[in-house]
Specification:
Blueprint lengths: L5 E4 L12 E4 L16 E9 L6 E11 L4 H10 L14 H18 L6 H16 L3 E3 L1 H6 L11 E3 L6 H16 L3 E5 L19 H18 L6 E7 L5 H20 L20 E6 L1 H9 L2 E5 L6 E6 H15 L3 E4 H6 L11 E2 L6 E2 L3 E9 L12 H21 L5 H10 L2 E6 L1 H7 L7 H29 L5 H19 L7 H24 L13 H6 L14 E5 L5 E5 L2 H8 L4 H14 L27 H11 L10 E4 L5 H13 L4 E6 L38 E9 L2 E9 L5 E8 L4 H19 L4 H8 L8 E5 L2 E4 L2 H13 L2 H7 L4 H8 L16 H5 L7 H7 L1 H4 L3 H9 L16 E3 L2 E3 L11
């Protein structure tokens, strides 16, 4: 292997003989005379992506060319998201070769134009090495690179932008416009609104100011519009307010109040699910909110003292508030609706390399990019599993070479990139912020036999991160010797050097536990020392180097099992198959981990089979209980504790230039006090930003909080009414319908009077405990007696549809594809079977045929169902009760659309992840965002 990927050289000669600086590039992954494409096997595939709601095709491109080693998921996402040109035209890209050539060729050309390479031969090697790394999924640029580079569109390469807003109407309107331009390019932005005067301050005209929360409405509406009409993906944005702003309490409670409104509208019958037609009537749903807290405030919380809220114009104290009470309100609002998150201002700015340029006041939507206002950051992430050797060792040498190469490529991109505003372009070129990161950390730790929530796991993660950032800054210092330091370096040299020393000193604080982390840390120490020595001479080419992004879509592009810094989602995985169809498999990381832990092949096979049947490792044959923690995941039977996530973030934070995109998930039973504890520990442990999500806290999810009681309305009695029970005859007509809701199976038997009026129902849940069976029997008797006393069926349908509790999700009924609970399903089915069309239409309950007719512009009332054609025997056998393993094998491929839905089926309960707004598939977590495995859509910005 070569000694270096690129060697800076000041003595290279151009064709005219004049000396110029440039890099010599040596081969690491490629072979001279052999093109990377010739080393892999290619095949043609058809990409046909359907909408699970109605089976309609939402994307189709046949005959696309990909390596056989690439998964169907990666093929689908790259084809639908990243291939450019109108589908069906000759200009449309149809091969991964074309896509990579478009990117690699542009980067090479820019590197030559901006004199990064010593010779043309070096440029050729650079292009070949870049092609090889992308082809073999060793790393990926962030999505805007794939969207825009090498096309006729502006060459926007950055995923993350930070804007600024001053206290003037012109500035506020500029903010709206700039956000729209950023969203149009497929990126996200963040802004701190703390400069805007509070509603408790006066305008120059004498009236009260509107306050920042009021201006958030306009920006939220703009983001919602662009999200709906964007060509690439939905908008992503962050809104921040300082904790000493007089309107901070209103800001804290804004989204919690809107969540109350959502519940009220939902209970009134409006469609308030994520993507529902009525959700647009509520505000502030298109942004993540965060409060920027100071050490002064957190110390006041710790000591139980008060804290000053200050005017924006002159800094005078408007009010002193109880710091603990304000902190409690933050935690309570986050407990209720997941917002606001928290950002630790003094910690952020203590690690700031450019304080003379200006403070860091804001972040991007996922909180990993933190830098000056009106700036941007282009990201790239390494696939860590590519560096895990077959013998379980980590390929440190190749990892170093990959980091060197990726940082060089990212640096080149700033030279040719376009930016949405002139201010952002000026600042980005002056500071050249980069954001290298990684994906597959969770898979790497499990495959290596380390528990995610363990000292050993955290040491490995810290060591990898320390080495990555150390190499990145060392390479940046070397590049500064070739093409000069970033423009703002001279102004910020002392601060930049101070932060570099802080990073280097943090390496000494990491305790090692084994060979892998020890080897990584030893080299990290060397890299930081070497890089700082070079930087003292040359300066640095980049103001920042690393972030830990969510790696949503690009994680699937690289066929990663885990995203960003996250642990594994679950031990079972949904996999699409070439030629159509899908299957459930145990994550391949699991057998690799078992072999690392020393289990025999027979034991590996038995444990893997057990996991495939049960979805977890508890009581797996031959598996020692002390190894259970290695297989703990983000969700499922054994999930990682909230503080396990916080501690992992704290372990790697000292080695990241920016911050970490990650949401700490807590169970629904978590208390407000636990939120306070997590936010407080995040400050103590030195995090820069933190968000916490409580399962089932939002209505726009598969589950939501319990409906509020509706106040009864007094009605004046005119005539006393005594109901009379009308019993069914001994022999009555009945039908039995089997059903399945999110994997929970059962039967419903309904009986009618001779005149066809419904008079009796019985609900039976299969394989449930005696308590639930008894409750369902009692519920059936209560409903039946009420029906016989004359309570109209439509009243029950009104009350029980949209009731939400587990199990909830997909059903096996073609007329009712989704149910928010078993009760919701049962009464929708009864309505379809026994209520006339006019009544059902008023309730919004239609058959699939009626909905189809309505979509076609036809009168759904003309659709007649022939009841005599209903095969009751077939209906009774449509959801057979089977063993879990058989159900996974036979039923799931027809029902499951993502790994999250598979996990729901295995563990028998729903997961709080939204449905994809593009294709309707249940999304999976990716840092503080969500990403769709079906089409690659993401709720984030990377």
């Amino acid at each position: 292997m070569s000694e270096a990927v690129e060697t800076p050289s000041r003595a290279a000669k151009s064709k005219n003989g004049k000396a110029r600086s440039g890099m010599t590039v040596q081969r690491v992954w490629t072979t001279a005379g052999v093109h990377p494409y010739d080393e892999v096997e290619w095949e043609a595939r058809d990409v046909v992506m359907t909408n699970w709601r109605d089976g309609s095709i939402n994307f189709e491109q046949r005959g696309v060319e990909f390596p056989t080693s690439w998964s169907v998921n990666a093929t689908n996402i790259v084809t639908s998201k990243y291939f450019r040109g109108a589908v069906g035209t000759p200009e449309r890209e149809h091969s991964l070769r074309q896509l990579i050539d478009r990117i690699a060729g542009t980067y090479r050309k820019a590197g030559e134009e901006h004199r990064y390479f010593a010779t043309t031969a070096d440029a050729e090697i650079f292009e070949a090495e870049l092609t090889w790394l992308l082809l073999h999924q060793y790393f990926s640029f962030n999505s805007p690179v794939w969207f825009n580079v090498g096309t006729s569109s502006p060459q926007q390469v950055s995923a993350c932008f930070i804007l600024s807003v001053d206290d003037s109407m012109d500035s506020i309107l500029d903010w709206y416009k700039e956000e729209g331009l950023i969203f149009k390019g497929g990126s996200g932005s963040g802004v701190n609104l703390s400069k805007i005067r509070s509603s408790r301050e006066l305008l120059s005209s004498g009236g009260n100011a509107s306050g920042p929360v009021s201006f958030m409405r306009g920006a939220d509406a703009s983001a919602g519009t662009i999200k709906s009409g964007g060509a690439t993906r939905r908008a992503a944005k962050m809104v921040i307010l300082d904790v000493d702003h007089p309107d901070v309490e209103e800001f804290i409670e804004t989204k919690a109040r809107e969540e109350d409104k959502i519940r009220a509208l939902r209970d009134a019958g409006f469609d308030m699910d994520l993507g529902g037609k009525d959700i647009v009537s509520v505000q502030y749903q298109n942004a993540n909110n965060s409060v920027r807290v100071t050490d002064e405030f957190m110390t006041a919380v710790e000591n139980g003292t008060d804290f000053a809220l200050r005017a924006r114009e002159d800094g005078r104290v408007i009010e002193r508030v109880d710091a603990k009470g304000l902190f409690h309100k933050m935690a309570k609002a986050a407990w209720e609706c997941a917002d606001p998150g928290i950002q630790y201002n003094d910690t952020i700015n203590d690690w700031h390399t450019n304080p003379e340029t200006g403070p860091i006041t804001a972040s991007n939507p996922c909180s990993e990019y933190l830098h000056i206002d009106n700036s941007s950051c282009n990201l790239a992430s390494l696939n860590l599993m590519k560096f895990l050797n077959d013998d379980g060792t980590f390929d440190v040498e190749r990892f170093v070479k990959a980091v060197e190469f990726v940082i060089t490529a990212m640096e080149i991109s700033i030279s040719f990139a376009d930016f949405p505003t002139e201010k952002i372009g000026v600042n980005t070129r002056a500071h050249r912020q980069l954001g290298i990161g990684y994906a597959n950390l969770g898979a790497l730790l499990m495959a290596s036999g380390f528990a995610y929530d363990s000292d050993e796991g955290r040491a490995v993660a810290a060591a990898i991160t320390a080495l990555m950032t150390g190499v990145s800054y060392r390479r940046s210092a070397e590049l500064a010797g070739v093409v000069g330091p970033y423009e703002a370096y001279a102004l910020n040299a002392d601060a930049h050097k101070r932060v570099m020393r802080k990073h280097a000193a943090a390496v000494d604080n990491v305790k090692t536990y084994g060979t892998m982390d020890r080897e990584l840390l030893t080299l990290a120490t060397t890299e930081w020392q070497r890089g700082n020595q070079i930087g003292d001479r040359n300066g640095w080419r980049n103001a920042q180097a690393s972030v830990i992004a969510p790696t949503g879509t690009i994680g699937f592009m690289m066929d990663c099992d885990t995203t960003g810094i996250e642990p594994d989602l679950a031990l079972v995985k949904f996999k699409k198959l070439v030629g159509g169809g899908s299957m459930q498999i145990v994550n391949q990381t699991v057998p690799r981990a078992l072999r690392t832990l020393g289990y025999t092949e027979e034991a590996v096979e038995a444990i893997t089979e057990y996991i495939g049947e049960h979805g977890h490792v508890v009581d797996a044959p031959s598996l020692r209980p002390e190894h259970y923690t290695v297989f703990d995941c983000a969700m499922g039977e054994r999930s990682i504790s909230p503080m396990g996530h916080v501690k992992m973030m704290a372990a790697v934070q000292p080695f990241v230039s920016g911050a970490i995109s990650k949401t700490v998930n807590v169970p629904e039973s978590a208390s407000v006090e636990e939120f306070e504890r997590i936010y407080f520990e995040g400050w103590k442990l030195g995090l820069k930003a933190l968000a916490v999500y409580r399962d089932n806290c939002k209505v726009g999810q598969p589950l939501s909080a319990k409906k509020k009681e509706v106040e009864p309305v007094e009605v004046e009695k005119v005539v006393e009414y005594r109901p009379v029970r009308r019993r069914l005859p001994k022999k009555r007509e009945s039908q039995t319908v089997s059903f399945s809701v999110a994997g929970a199976e059962g039967y419903m038997t309904s009986s009618t009077y001779p005149d066809n009026g419904l008079g009796e129902v019985f609900f039976k849940m299969s394989k449930q405990g005696s308590t639930l069976a008894g409750i369902m029997d009692a519920f059936s008797v209560a409903i039946s007696i009420a029906l016989q006393y004359g309570v109209p069926l439509e009243k029950y349908v009104e009350k029980f549809t949209n009731m939400r509790f587990e199990p909830a999700g997909m059903t096996d009924d073609p007329d009712i594809r989704m149910a928010s609970s078993v009760v919701d399903y049962l009464f929708r089915r009864l309505a379809l079977d026994y209520l006339p069309y006019g009544t059902r239409a008023d309730l919004g309950i239609l058959t699939a045929a009626e909905r189809t007719a309505e979509a076609r512009g036809e009168d759904p009332a003309l659709v007649h169902r022939d009841e005599e054609d209903v095969d009751l025997t077939a209906m009774a056998s449509s959801a057979p009760i089977a063993k879990v393993a058989e159900k996974l094998h036979e039923v799931m491929p027809a029902k499951i659309g993502s790994s999250t839905e598979l996990l729901e089926a295995v563990q028998g309960k729903a997961a709080d992840a939204p449905l994809c707004m593009t294709c309707g598939t249940k999304m999976r977590p990716a840092g503080s965002c969500y990403v769709c495995e079906g089409c690659g859509s993401t709720s984030g910005c990377s």
